[in-house]
Amino acid sequence: MDDAVALSLGPVPALGRRLRVALVTGSYNYIADGVALTLNRMVAFMESRGVEVLIFAPVGRRPAFAHAGEVVPVPSIAAPGRGEYRAALGLPRGPRERLLAFRPDILHIATPDLLGHAAQRLGRRMGWPIVASYHTRFETYLKYYGLVGLTPALAGLVRAFYDRCREVYVPSDSMIDVLRADGVKAPIRLWPRGVDTGRFHPGARSEAWRVARGLGPDDVVITFVSRLVKEKRVAEVAQVFARLRAAGIPHRPLFVGDGPERAFLEREVPGALFEGFLTGDDLATAYASSDIFLFPSDTETFGNVTLEAMASGLPTVCANATGSRSLVEAGVTGYLAEVGDSEGLYGAVAGLAGNAARRRAMGEAARARSLRFSWDEAMGGLLARYEALAGA
Fold it and tell me: pTM value?
């Protein structure tokens, strides 16, 4: 990031008081997905630096985890066809008055949904500096649900939304290229992600964990970590495992996560281990106790799970898509296959499965590359942008 990392606990000089940031997002604490966890980490960092943060988001019956900061609930319904997600219905009077009373110095919108658009309209009327972070390639989801015809219209709405923001923050250089190609003209700045390399590291490997799951010391465990949903290309994952079985290549599939496609995977990938959602040290142990990370998703803007796998010392086999191509050094830390190229994915996984020395060398290189990604530097750079915009 090209801005100095701001770590002071004092007030912004141009304001003479603590910075106030309103965060508006469609996912914060009702599900433990990558967006929610990243935003929680951001809020915790900002509050530790003396920033006042107020979050406006849909909520579930109970939080999925202990969240950071104060959440102002907004009305929502279960998302059609994806009941694990909530669809915000806008910004009604109660939350709107709370936002007006808060008088933010920065309005940060994380989702271009009905709530995000309503907050943006209010912020423009009030003259607040509005920024947006880009987390999800919603337009790429449509092809997985038979709605590809709506892609141009959705892309146009998204483009107009971001062009009304003072700055747009994206997690990878490849996403800058995508947004520019899509016609977004607003200033785009890099807000990378980090990884906790103290938690996710090769030393978390546990032979006891493997034995408890019937894994021998020579079993090659190939792991997929994600929500089990169509847009993560789980059908392609199943194809790779089918090819490995047909070729007689010894391996054990491991799935970490859950979702509506679990039944499909249980049927199509016999003998697979399903750990469900894992967090913290349990997740770190699962990564490090594996041997290869497989992730063909093309909907990522960064790829937190890929970076966690790299920090855990795993070679990674991913789609040559946004996010992954900014992380994986092809032929050094892992391999990239073109989107939809299940043969390419299979060939890379098969080659690694039969070559322990290559797995070790690539895993060591992946670990070394992961050390370049610091959460404190990433969050500090964002705080520097907040302060610059508020001061201006």
Answer: 0.83
